[in-house]
Structures are given as C-alpha cells and as structure tokens.
Amino acid sequence: MPGPSARSCADLRCGGLPEILERPDMASESRQAIRACTDDLLARHVRYCYERSAFYRDRFNRLGLGPEAIRTVADLHILPFTTKADLASSGERLLCVPLDQVVDVCQTSGTTGEPVTLLQTERDLQRLAYNEYQCFTAAGLTCANRVAVACSLERCFMAGLAYFEGLRRIGACAVRVGAGSPSLLAETVLSHRPFAIVGVPSSLLACAHLLSRRGLDPAGLGVRKLVCIGEPVRDRDLGLSPLGLRLHKAWGAQVLGTYASTEMATSFAECDQGRGGGHILPDLIVVEIVDEAGASVPAGQPGELVATPLQVTGMPLLRLKTGDITTLLTEPCPCGRLTHRLGPVLGRKAQMLKVRGTTVYPNDVFAVLQGLDGVEDYCLEVHEDFELSDRPRVIVGLDKDTSLTADEIGERIRGRLRVRLEVVIVATEEVRRRVREEGRRKPIRVFDYRGRGKDGQA
Q1: Same domain for 343 and 403?
Q2: What are the average pLDDT values for consecutive 10-residue runs of the chain, which has 458 residues?
Q3: How many CB atoms lie within 10 A of CB 184?
Q4: How far is the C-alpha of 68 from the C-alpha of 63, rounded, in Å?
Q5: CA gap 219, 202 in Å, rounded
Q6: Are 205 and 223 contacting, i.e. CB atoms less than 8 angstroms apart?
Q7: In this structure, is the dihedral angle defined by the CA atoms of residues 265, 266, 272 and 274, taken in order, positive or negative?
Q8: Same structural domain for residues 372 and 329?
Q9: CA dist., res. 351 & res. 363, Å (int)
Q10: Same domain, 326 and 390
Q11: Is there a domain that residue 455 lies in?
C-alpha cells in the first residue's frame, strides 16, 4: 500500500495552524500603528494559548479569566509569569499541536540549569526563518553575500538552524562551518572568503589570533561584518566593549551584536548603523522589563526581561521570565526604524553578586579582562563568604610573554567596579578546558558554587 504523498504530509503538518503574519515594513510605521498591530497579534496569541495549551488554560481558569481579558500589551500584567521551571516540569502540557505536526526538536543550552526541550511545527520554522531574515537584512546582508555560520546545527540547538534558514530566506550563500574550532573557521575564511561571519566573539577573536600567528592579516581577507552571538560586544553606553574593540581591530570589520534565546525563538539584532541596541520585532515578540517585585520599570532602567513570543504554534509561551537583566531603549534609532530596542544584557539575575555591599555582574568583570593585553582566557568562580555577601574568584590564563600580575589585574578590576576581587593565575590550557566544555555551543565562564558547601560540590 503506498505511503502518504509529500503534499499530504506537508498538509498534515500544517493543517489547522494559523498562517504567519509577516510585516517586514512594520518598523517604519508610526508607533501607534506598531502598537495596534502588536496588540492584535497578542490577543490572537492569548486565545490560541487558551484554546490549545492545557498549561495556560488551567492557569486562566484558576484565575477566573478568559482570553478576552488580555486585549492589549497593557493587560498582560494580570497574568502570572512563566518560569523556566514551568518549562522543565510541564513540557507536554505546553504543547498545542498533535505530535504528528511536530517537525523539529530543539533544546536549550542549559547554561543556568537543565536543558529544556521545545517542539516546533512547520509554521514555527517559517517564523524562525522570517525572524532571522529581518535581523540579517537590518544588519545589511543581501543575497549577494557569502556568510560563514560558525555555530552548531547539531545537538538540537536552535541557533545554527535559525541562522541558516534566515540566510536561505535572504538568498545569501551560507557556509556552515560549525562551532568550536578556530582552526576550521580559519581554513573556511581562507578557502571561501566570506563577507560576514556569524559566531561567538571569543571564538572569532581566537581565529583572528591563529591567522595572525600564521603571518596573515585577518583584516585583509575580505570579512566585512561580524555578527556576534552568545557573548555581549557592547558596553552599557552602547559603545563597543573591549572584546568588541579587539574584534574590530583584528578583523577590520563592523562588529554587530545580537541577543536571543531558544525559549523566545526570536532575535534582537543591531542594525548596520550600530550603537542602537537590539531591535525588537513587534510582530514576533512582546517584551516587558520588570523589577524584583515584578513591576514594570521606566525605559532606560535595568530590569529583568520578560518575553511573550508571538505567532508560535508548537509550544507558545506567555510572560516568560528570562533571567536576563537589560534595559528598554525608546529613543529613535539612527537607522530610522521606530521600533523600541534592547540595550546590552548586563548579566543574568541568578549570577548577580553582592560583594561587600556592592552589586557586581560577571560581565563587568569580563569587560575589564577583555581590555587587558596578555589575558588569553578567563572564568569566574563564585563562593559564599557569609550571608548576603559573595566571594568571587577570578581565574585568569595569561600569555607566556606578558608581565601582568594578579595584583595588577585586581587593581584594574577595583578601578572599574570599586571593589577588590581575588585573582588567581593558572595555565591558559587549564582555563580553556573548563570554559570550552565539549558539546557546549558557547563558553561557560561562571561557575557558581554558592549553596554547595566549601568543597564546591552539590
């Protein structure tokens, strides 16, 4: 008996799901029109969650609410937050389609906990491609460009898949080099001469150093844009961070930052004007910035990002607490887009440290280390000192020819953060083994031993 045709399989996997509403011109409309479109898409999204998600239907019913209670973004505050613990414990109850409509399985990287599985439909993959099409177009990429994708497509990671689909949508040539090997990326750059590279900043810098040691000038190899993922390349004032500056100097290329997560299935990317922050795609996501009590904070003030990804059909979410601390930027961007933007991620809420009364984020420590010649790699251990005070330990690997000392590094950190941290110098290879764990798509730089006893064990 013959099996189902390709057309009937496609119909099965898409049947009954709403079409993706694409508005690539939306960012140039008035802010009133942008809000109206987002409100309309949010109302549809809430109704879809209520009708199809057992998790959210129960939540609405416990509150005595129906989907009509959420008509605009301003109404969202009446709903409780969704946490990553909810995702880990309620996966099946979050799924809104039959299993035969699932075409892709994604997993989070598990940077701050156990990996979470998210299931995607054909419509979700179309949405993912549209999202990255928007981001890459804003970054100035076109169908005439060759782009090296230096991130993983395997291990159920979403990022590499999303970038590849976005480049296909543009019509650009994607060179899928993969993650984790600066030498392989170097050979790819020499063989294929990409116009742009998408990758983790520290890996892109390691590749540049490798090329330089071979007597080659990375800036002369034709790479004109670096689209950076996984690590911040902007300071709080939106200027390039020390890491971003080193990348720009090494490659002679424009350095652009992005921010995303698997759970959000949406990217916040800088446009080719730079210094504007990551543009919010108002037809794909609603963002809130909240304080410790869950109340909204004014634009420009730091708080935790809460995300509601719109037009997701497989496992849609409402008010997901990301744990990332950032700011909302509302002033117009030099590119002319009227959409709001996100500032650089200052750090993760779970990684915020209190050191002798001073709030410290690991990213601020790393920014100091990135600006020091002679520092080759680094990470941060966090131990408990006593109640309400943490004891960070900065682990640094140095170039064998540098004269830097632990005391000098400690003084540079104190000058930036107004607090002195313990600095320990170890062999660079030892740091690299810890930071670049096999199977991880980006470096792990924070090792948090708080609550695990003096030996650092759980």
Answers
A1: no
A2: 48 69 87 95 97 97 97 96 93 94 87 77 96 96 97 85 95 92 94 96 92 96 96 89 94 96 94 87 97 94 96 97 95 90 90 85 91 92 77 93 93 90 94 80 85 45
A3: 14
A4: 13
A5: 17
A6: no
A7: negative
A8: no
A9: 10
A10: no
A11: no
